Amino acid sequence: MSTDADRGTATLRHVVHIRLEPSLDDARREALEADLHRLVDEHPHAVTGTLHRDLGRRPEASVSATWMVVLDFGSMDDFEAYLAHPLHRDFLADHQPAMAYISAIQVPLDV
Length: 111
Fold this sequence. Notes:
By secondary structure, the chain is an alpha+beta fold. It is built from 3 helices and 4 strands; from the N terminus they run E-H-E-E-H-H-E.
């Protein structure tokens, strides 16, 4: 268990699930997916970033996500800098309205 003193230095994993409705307009989907690839490829302030697409077995299911993003950060300070980075901020401003849902969790990484 980390303490407040560890907050700035503890490594962490940020996992995001994004659901796009299967009926989303192709142009909006393509723009969102291109910007998502760019965000994960550049992964500002993160050590690594990976993007995973759902296999699409049941995209109509209300609990199905379309994308999973995994970003690892060297510290909470790096994660906070990522949240404020224009690439992240602009991605959400531009595309969050087109998402059926987005959820995120941050978990500590064992070192």
